[in-house]
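A student in our group prepared the protein record below, which I am reviewing. Thanks in advance; the entry in question is below.
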Amino acid sequence: MLSVHQLTCFLAAYEHGSLTRAAEHLGYAQPSVSEQIRALEKTLGVELFRRVGRGVVPTTVGDTLRPYAEKVLASIDEARQAVQSVKSFETGTIRFGMFGIARLYAGAGLIADVLTRYPGVRVELVGQNSAEVMEELRRGRLEAAMLAVSTVESEGMDVTPVAREELVYLSAEPARLETPVTAHRLSLATLVMSETTFRATDSTRATLRRMLHETGRNPGTRIEVEDIETAVELVGLGLADTVIPLGAAQQLVPRLAPKAGWVSLRPRQFDTFAIVHRKGAVLSPAARLMIELATTRMQEIAEATASRHPATPSAT
């Protein structure tokens, strides 16, 4: 039977033209190399080398065998590397970028999905805002990420949209929720908005700026905060209204602002979520896993969120 050891000795002898030099190259004793080649010749029933002086010259059969032997050994090496990659993956660290609001309804579930498959890994979900995560991608600190992409500059990146979510108007005043909120009404509203550090690039604010373009105004804010939870709490206190993704409203309003409700904008506005990585990048098994799991989870969440959105505007 052919063995890896036999093929290794054959290729070394073929390359060096000498059993002695082949043995030195492999770190074997010369009789061991001779024995392996004789065993290979016996298995195949052919002569692979002619002995010439102190060297060896391949026969026509030896020339024929060489590329096949190289392919076999290359395949074995690839298999070994693949196994080592998986072994390292299963006990290493997985880093994946995700914009901040997504943590409310995907972060814990996504980590649970990963640990169910690979209990030995360490997981890092990185990022607070899509613009920040995009910069980490550009600098090579992340392989891939799930981002809200309405305003993120994506030059040099592969962007694959996977889901979208409606933006809704949140208020504790029932009269403001009787009909969808138009651009004109939005321009007159007293708002609290989150993501104040990233206000210039935040996808929700960018969508609202486009919506208000026809009014000649930008969204006015009475209160600026960093996290969406604080914004929702302030709405619950009746100090301002806000615009947030529907999934975030469904998660936070019952807990932080139970007297508040939400309504659609008119026309309806959406955030688009996408998988982003550098163009032409060869992604690691960890990055491919996170892309698969994040895409599946975000699509499921977006579908479930849309199905629970009331058909007619009303306070909850």
User: Anything to note?
Assistant: The mean pLDDT is 88. The first helix runs from residue 4 to 16. Residues 94-308 form a domain with the D-Maltodextrin-Binding Protein; domain 2 fold (CATH 3.40.190.290). The first strand starts at residue 49 and ends at 52.
